[in-house]
Each structure stands twice: as C-alpha cells, then as structure tokens.
Design brief:
By secondary structure, the chain is α/β, with parallel strands linked by helices. The protein has 13 helices and ten strands. The strands form two sheets. An eight-stranded parallel barrel has the order 1-4-5-6-7-8-9-10, surrounded by five helices. The chain has a two-stranded antiparallel sheet with strand order 2-3.
C-alpha cells in the first residue's frame, strides 16, 4: 500500500532557464521552491508537463530534482514523461536514486483507455520500483481520454495508487463521478489545469489542487477556505484571482505566460521556454504592460492578506 498524498496544494514547479543555451537556472528554481513552501504548499510536483520535463536531459532532470530537494523540506512527486512501461521504469529509478525517501510518489499519465492495460502498465512500474503512483488523467498531454469509471476500476485494482490527478474536462463532473465510483475511503483526487476549475472541483469533493499558478498562495488559501468553510468561503478568497487564472491558461502560450508572471513577481530571472513550447508574445506584453503590472500589484496586496 502506498502512502496516500496529503490534502492541500501540491505546487507544480516550472523549470527556469538562463543564458543563450537555456541552461537550468538553479538559483531561480530554488527561490520558487522556497516560495511554495513559505506559502503553505503541502508538497511539490517536479518535472511535470509545465516543468518542461520532456525537453530536459537525464542530467538536467537530476539537477532539477536535487535543487528542489535541497531548497525545501517538502515531499516531492516526480513527473514521468514516458507513456510506455519500460522507459517509465527507468525514469522512476532515476528519480529514486536522486531523492531517496524525499520522493513521495511518481506521477504517471494514463496511456490507454482500457482499464486492464492501464492497470498492467502501473503494476509493471510499481513491481520494478516499489514507488507509489499518482495517476494523471490529462488528455491534452497524453492524447488519451479515460472514462471516470475506468479510472476508478484501475485505482481499485492498484492499491499502490497514492492519488489521482483529474484533468479531463469537464473536471468537476469527472471528479464527482470518480469519487462516487471510488466510494468512502478512496484515494484523494486533485484538480489541475492551472486552477481554472478549482472552485467547482473543490465543491465536487477534490482533496485540493496539484497545479501551478503564478500566485500559489491564492491556491493554498482557496483550498484551506474550502476545507474549513465550504465552497462560499473558497469563492470569496479565490474570485479576485480568477481573471489572472484565465489569462494565464491561454492555449499554446500558457507556460510562457506563467513564467512571465513569475518573472514580473521577482521569483525567476528569465521567462524563457524551450522548444516546442511557444515563447511569450512580445505584442501581448506591450499591449498589456500597464494593465498587467497594475493587476499584479493589486493581487500581490491581496495575496499577502490571505496567507
């Protein structure tokens, strides 16, 4: 039986780069990780899709994991980019070699809609590594759509699943269906997608969020408010941040936007992304310069008040 992930916010950490060769910027990465811990994240998700893991070398992935572990005391979920079993095992073994007991679980994408085949994939990874697994249902990245009932069947068959990250729209509906299928005492289910559906996901019973946003303190405050005071309390906290959530989650440029906002907030030194990610559009920055900076200043003040 794996360790079940704690309720709350598991911050998805982007990978900052620097210089003409876009080397991993460990100083900025450490500063980001320290911020996630300071604002109350219960854990970190490193080498996810928004961590640009697919563009990193094996050595760079190890460097990112080492930096995150050294900069905070938070437990870590390491993302696995491979969709096939054997290369996924190799990625998990590499993460275990770097993190040891700091590795709480690995995040594995659903690679098929067939529950028997998906269960065998997860069982093969667990058998070879002993790792707990966060099952990520993210059709936008994997290209695979898995019905909630199939995800539930896989989770029931695989007791080493530590959580489900549900990112198949409509997310709140799928989370509600998944939790109903799992029944009382099932594994926690987390929302993602930058917090766009966070309020509805929490109302549907999500344990929290496993995602990134340029104001992670707002995610933390909203999840805490939902757990303590219900959906209305969460909405009161998170509503002022929703326009920025929607701005940040624009298709194809979402990663670049998030990095640009972290840059403007002073947490990273460079907002560059690696190919194939699309860079921040200069025209957008010029068009929204004053408006965006004013919004960040106002939300900075709000964020300081919700910590």
């Amino acid at each position: 039986m794996s360790i079940i992930l704690d309720r709350g916010v598991w911050g998805v950490v982007p990978t900052p780069f620097t210089g003409s060769a876009l080397d991993v910027d460990t100083d900025s990465l450490a500063q980001l990780v320290e911020h996630y811990e300071a604002v109350g994240a219960v854990g970190l998700t490193v080498l996810g899709v928004f961590g640009e893991a697919a563009s990193l070398s094996v050595a760079e992935k190890a460097l990112v994991l080492e930096t995150a572990a050294e900069a905070s005391s938070l437990p870590i979920v390491a993302g696995v980019t491979a969709l096939a079993t054997r290369p996924a095992i190799d990625e998990v073994l590499a993460a275990q070699a770097v993190l040891g007991d700091r590795l709480r679980a690995v995040m594995v994408q659903a690679n098929t809609a067939d529950p028997d085949s998906l269960a065998k994939h997860l069982e093969g990874i667990h058998r070879a590594t002993g790792a707990g697994i966060v099952l990520q249902d993210y059709p936008a990245a994997s290209g695979v759509s898995v019905p909630a009932r199939a995800v539930a069947a896989v989770v029931r068959r695989c007791p080493f699943v530590a959580a489900v990250k549900a990112e198949a729209p409509p997310t709140a509906l799928n989370i509600a269906r998944l939790l109903a299928a799992l029944g009382a005492g099932g594994v926690p289910v987390f929302g993602g997608l930058g917090g766009q559906g966070l309020l509805d996901e929490l109302a549907a019973g999500a344990a929290g969020a496993m995602t990134g946003f340029s104001f992670p303190e707002a995610l933390v405050a909203a999840v805490r408010a939902a757990h303590d005071g219900g959906p209305e309390a969460a909405a009161a906290v998170f509503a002022p941040f929703l326009p920025l959530v929607n701005f940040e989650q624009q298709p194809r440029i979402a990663l670049a936007l998030r990095k640009e906002l972290f840059l403007r907030r002073g947490f990273i030194a460079d907002a560059s992304v690696r190919t194939p990610a699309a860079p921040f559009p200069a025209e957008l920055g010029a068009m929204l310069q004053g408006q965006l900076d004013a919004a960040l200043e106002a939300l900075d003040s709000l964020a300081a008040g919700v910590r």
